[in-house]
Design brief:
CATH class: Alpha Beta
Shape: globular
Structural class: alpha/beta
Number of domains: 1
Organism: Ligilactobacillus salitolerans
CATH topology: Rossmann fold
Strand order of the largest sheet: 1-2-3
Helix content: 10-25%
Number of strands: 3
Largest sheet: 3 strands, parallel
Protein name: Alpha/beta hydrolase
CATH superfamily: Alpha/Beta hydrolase fold, catalytic domain
Mean pLDDT: 89
Radius of gyration: 15 Å
CATH architecture: 3-Layer(aba) Sandwich
Pfam families: DUF915
Distance between the termini: 17 Å
Low-confidence stretches: none
Order of helices and strands: EHEHHEH
């Protein structure tokens, strides 16, 4: 399983025109830069509603799954890829690492670590995926 820039515990509220302002999805835009952090055991200090739902299913994660969690950090002081904070994406580890066959994280730094640029013609991501999936 390879995941890319997953907002497991919040999405930054950027006030974008296409950001939902009502309904079920509006509540997901509840994170802000440097507001949250991971405690020593990996659990996020602030637990958002969507993460609470994932915690309820933590013991259902398949034990034969290898996980690679790729995320970005713009290195602009926000500890984020511009949309998803590092603590939000890295909170996946607390959910699955004790059950997964293996768990790895990989950070893309700087300009190429921007949320949308992580999946659009990003040679560093492509190389990491190839290495992880095929050992090349």
């Amino acid at each position: 399983m390879v995941v890319l820039a997953g907002p497991y515990n919040g999405i930054m509220n950027k006030g974008h025109a296409n950001q939902p302002t009502n309904g079920e999805l509006a509540g997901l835009w509840d994170d802000s830069p440097r507001a949250n952090y991971l405690m020593k055991n990996g659990r996020p200090k602030i637990i958002h509603e969507e993460y609470r739902r994932l915690l309820e299913r933590k013991n259902d994660f398949p034990t034969n799954t290898r996980v690679l969690n790729i995320y970005g950090d713009l290195k602009d002081g926000t500890r984020s890829d511009g949309l998803v904070t590092e603590p939000s994406v890295r909170s996946l580890k607390y959910l699955v690492a004790n059950r997964a066959k293996s768990y790895q994280e990989y950070e893309i730094k700087g300009e190429m670590g921007q949320h949308s640029r992580l999946h659009i013609d990003n040679p560093e991501v492509s190389d990491k995926l190839t290495q992880y999936l095929w050992g090349k």
